[in-house]
# Entry
Amino acid sequence: MTDFLETTRSLPDGVYVPTVAFFKQNDDIDLEATQRHAIRLAEAGVAGLVVHGSNGEAVHLSREERNLVIKTTRAALDQSDHHLMPLIAGCGAQSTRETIQLCRDAASAGASHAIILPPAYYGGILNTSKIVQHFYDVADSSPIPLVIYNYPGACSGLDLSSDTILQIAKHSNVHGVKLTCGNTGKLARIVDGAKPSFFVAGGSADFILQGLVVGGHGTIAGTANLVPRACVRICELFQAGELKEARRLQAIVAKADWIAIQTGFAGVKAALQHLEGYGGEPRKPCGLPSGEQLDMITNGFEEVMALERNLD
# Structure
């Protein structure tokens, strides 16, 4: 394991948004919508953006398209005077070799960090030591720092324990973790056991406040594509000690997040299209919800969207 000098800035506390991907009617990347969305989120006060996460349809993108989205997002942030805003790129792959290549691509395209799912396709023959070594090998070779991504739903049920995450976190080029597992006990253990500069975030908007209470540093939450200000406000209220109001807002956001959890990234895109006028279709074979499901989405987001507009 190579020791890296801590020359790359730590991720600041706050809300990070795993952005959705945007496509034109001909299925090409919609660069204009990509830029517009990035600027809208940055102006709402979020701490950073994540591309090529679960919400960003990374599995639907070619290597060239991944690089294009990173470059376009970075350019939008720079042109809107958000030069220092972290841009995290999803770089997980099933082989160590490809993961390293994606990290190098992301760095060249303008990403500041890479977020990595553990390899799980051959999970039956990958014990914990092999998974830890995978992260160490990638961290040794990546030109940008890594964020561990623990998401059992995307990894055939593989759920990294706090012990495993803390072992990976010892590498100086591993700077954080996203816990979409929703385990706040695990979050508390990692905060307590990791180096002080290590960024620990929940992976869903329905437990922003709960994560902060046990020492977490923020959230990486898909629902923040729609309601970034509401998510940021929960963090601000917690920091100000206004817990009663923070709990009220968290309850509103959590109800909307339950709709997003049930409908996935396509539900977030449908809500963006219906409520904000842009979003578009996901790539096939996925599609947008319609009928009763779309009604559930629009009704389920009504209260939180009213909150968001009041905060604008």
Confidence is low (pLDDT under 50) at residues 1-9. The chain is about 45% helix and 10% strand. The beta strands are 14-18, 48-51, 87-90, 113-116, 146-150, 174-179, 199-202, 218-220. Residues 243-276 form the longest helix (34 residues).
